[in-house]
Design a protein that fits this description.
With about 270 residues, this protein is α/β, with parallel strands linked by helices. About 40% of the residues lie in helices and about 25% in strands. α9 packs antiparallel against α10. The C terminus is likely disordered.
Length: about 270
């Protein structure tokens, strides 16, 4: 009998995941036998240099892309062989997304953008969901901005709307792709703190792809990828520790990076 993702304490997981682009001599292996889980109620940062496979891993875990081989689950639902329609419904109901470019609908006001997942699902929020949305609006300081359209909001405010939209349905898992990339440092810190709070107080599972050591330092766990493989899985680290590991990995490989990491910690 196979142990379920829930029994493992995970919100999502992949097993033996491989992703190859192209064929023959021009083939590029973006992921090479990756097995990893995203723990429930934890804020996980996924890091790595350009081309390491971090975005590909997130896209497959979120059901936005298909693996070449291997298996993937969201909760206890295996998504590996689902149809496009089944994946769309699953994502809409159980996964939230926060993007670097905010991805708000310009013709909708802030409240309309927050309620968009429910509109796409053809329903209105339940009383419990409405209470959650009201709490998010209050926590995110959006009460006075609900009637404003995206172009009337600052970058930080737009990202707050995007976070409220991502959390509105109470999804099992929220994927954040470079969520602070278009923000100033103060707004970025606020957004990261909000994501961390969502993981710790609301039990949401947050998986954030980032190249920024400062952003990753807000996470409970840091996964490092290189050449399509997970080369390190570390608990919370400072930005300095993360930077030292990344620099050493670039200069001399994983073994040197581990030594540098030990040196920073000692």
């Amino acid at each position: 009998m196979e142990i379920t993702t829930t029994e493992l304490g995970l919100a999502a997981r992949v097993q033996g995941l491989t992703k190859t682009y192209g064929e023959g001599s021009t083939a590029v292996r973006a992921l090479d036998g990756v097995s990893v889980g995203i723990r429930r109620g934890e804020f996980t940062a996924i890091m790595g240099p350009s081309g390491s496979g971090k975005s590909t891993l997130m896209h497959i875990m979120a059901g936005l892309d298909a693996a070449t081989s291997g298996r993937a689950w969201i909760g206890d639902t295996e998504i590996t062989g689902l149809s496009d329609l089944e994946l769309t419904v699953l994502r809409r109901r159980r996964v939230g997304f926060v993007f670097q470019a905010f991805n708000l609908v310009p013709t909708l006001d802030a409240l309309g953008n927050i309620l968009l997942p429910f509109d796409l699902d053809g329903r209105r929020p339940s009383a419990i969901e409405r209470a959650r949305i009201d709490g998010l609006i209050d926590t995110l300081g959006l009460g006075a901005r609900l009637g404003h359209r995206p172009h009337e909001l600052s970058g930080g405010q737009q990202q707050r709307v995007a976070i409220a939209r991502a959390l509105a349905t109470g999804p099992d898992l929220v994927f954040a792709d470079e969520p602070t990339g278009n923000l100033d440092s103060r707004s970025g810190r606020e957004v990261l703190a909000l994501l961390a709070t969502a993981a710790r107080s609301a039990g949401q599972s947050i998986a954030m792809v980032t190249h920024d050591p400062v952003a990753a330092s807000h996470a409970d766990r840091v996964l490092h990828l290189a050449d399509g493989r997970i080369v390190a899985d570390k608990p919370r680290q400072t930005a300095e520790e993360i930077s030292a590991f990344m620099l050493a990995a670039e200069l001399g490989g994983v073994g040197v990076a581990a030594d540098a990491d030990a040196g920073v910690r000692s």
